[in-house]
Amino acid sequence: MPELPTLEIYKKYFDETSLHQTINHVQVVSPEVLVGSSSEEIKKTLLGHEFIQSRRYGKYLFAQMDNDLFLIMHFGMTGFLYYGSVDGSRYPRLLIEFSTGKFLSFDDARKFGKLGLTRHPDEFIKEKKLGPDALEINFKSFKEVFKNRKGMIKPLLLNQHVLAGIGNLYADEILYQSRVHPLTPAHLLDKEEWEQLFNDMKRVLQKAIEYQDKPEALPESYLLPHRHPGGKCPAGGKLNIIPVGGRTTYFCPQRQKIKH
DNA sequence: GAATTCGCCTGCACGC
DNA sequence: TGCGTGCAGGCGAATT
After folding, report:
1. Residues 56-75, chain A: which have Cβ under 7 A from strand C?
2. Which segments constitute the Formamidopyrimidine-DNA glycosylase catalytic domain (predicted)?
3. Which partner for A70 in A62, A103, A132, A242 could form a disulfide, CB atoms 3.0-4.6 Å apart?
4. Stated in angstroms, how far is A195 CA from C2 C1'?
């Protein structure tokens, strides 16, 4: 799923394929994925221009144009970028044709993804009330965003208003590494546990990027390669599967004990 | 405002 | 083979 590490990979892909080429043609295949902009506005903004750089924040990718506007991309569950021939993308929602004859497709089977325009990412981040980026945040701010929070730790990690970038899979991994039970009320965690959580979050995200966001390819000691029905905890024992905040959650009851 | 639940969307795995 | 069912999950709206 496109979480923060995925977005880092997408950003790299975008930067390597789609910068500095004039856009010759724009087709909004599925206008329903547009937010705050019409098909016409998207076309008008992109046509005849080129992308000059990109920025990732949380699970968003902002593509800056040479007219100082930004195309906002959010990939939902199944979204990704494809650069190549027009028929290489199975579920295109936005098709951009460059002067080179190559296409960039925003492909998203389930249409949970979103596209829009903004004058500046910072403006958008503020509007959306996104929390600090999980890869950029320091420990002081990390403690601050969870201060006075009484909710369960996992839904809080997933809450993009609290912290931007973490999704269901990596939330499970981070909690597993930190030996924190997903249902633990945030205010019951002590100083050592917050430090542990912070350090593991950074380590897991960096490791995921290093492994090209292939969760199943992570080292054996990680939860994600075992995160499937019948999967075993790499430290021994069976993994439990429970819903937390409506999300499927895997954890190891031996390692991750609930605090009351 | 904060916590919690639910529905959107659709490909795919699974069972009969 | 083919059909029906339910799951996957990011996010925002609705509810408490």
Report:
1. 58-59, 74
2. 2-113
3. A62
4. 54
Taking residue A138's Cβ as centre, other Cβ atoms within 10 Å add up to: 11
**Could you give the angle at the alpha carbon of A217 between the alpha carbons of A158 and A179, nearest 5°?**
45
CB environment A22-56: b (16+ within 10 A), e (fewer): ebeebbbebeebbeebeeeebebbbeeebbeebeb
Q: At what angle do helices A139-146 and A191-210 cross, to 10 degrees?
A: 120
At A256 the three-state DSSP class reads coil
Average pLDDT over residues A242-259: 90
Name the CATH code of domain A4-127 (choices 3.40.50.1000, 3.20.20.190, 3.20.190.10, 3.40.50.620). Answer: 3.20.190.10
A110 touches strand C (CB under 7 A): yes
Q: How confident is the model at residue A50 (pLDDT cuts 50, 70, 90)?
A: very high
The dihedrals phi and psi of A215, each to the nearest 5 degrees, come to -55, -35
> pLDDT digit string (tens) for A10-31?
999 999 999 999 999 999 999 9
A 10 A CB-CB count for A224 gives 22
Which CATH number describes the domain made up of A139-251?
1.10.8.50
DSSP A32: G
Nearest to A30 by CA among A117, A118, A103, A115: A115
The domain segmentation of chain A, as residue ranges, is 4-127, 139-251
